[in-house]
Amino acid sequence: MPIIKSAIERVKTNNKANARNTAQMSAMRTAVKKFENAKTAGADNVDDLYIAAVSAVDKAATKGLIKRNKAARDKSRMAARYAK
Q1: Which residue spans traverse the membrane (predicted)?
Q2: For residue 4, how far is the Cα from the chain centroid?
């Protein structure tokens, strides 16, 4: 544990940011998995889940949690799967 006050504050800030980032990534992955599972099962609400998944990926890219190219790649794959 750091002794210097600014370092202590930095640790607290980093922990908060880490928790926030982890929650955001988890939400994104969950949205994508829900879409994938619904598409595989042939559920009725695939349209809503697709929109939610794309939105979650866009939000993660905007926040800097994933790179823009990864977001584009993921959205492209989901769009292809959605159209199938």
Answers
A1: none
A2: 35
CATH code of the domain in which 21 resides: 1.20.58.110
Q: How far apart are CA 48 and CA 54, in angstroms?
A: 10
Between CA 76 and CA 40 the distance in angstroms is 17
Give the pTM. Answer: 0.89
User: Sign of the C-alpha dihedral, residues 34, 36, 42, 48?
Assistant: positive
Q: Is the pLDDT of residue 75 over 90?
A: yes
Q: What is the 3-state secondary structure (H, E, C) of 32-80?
A: HHHHHHHHHHCCCCHHHHHHHHHHHHHHHHHHCCCCHHHHHHHHHHHHH
* Structural domain count, the chain: 1
Domain carrying residue 70:
5-83
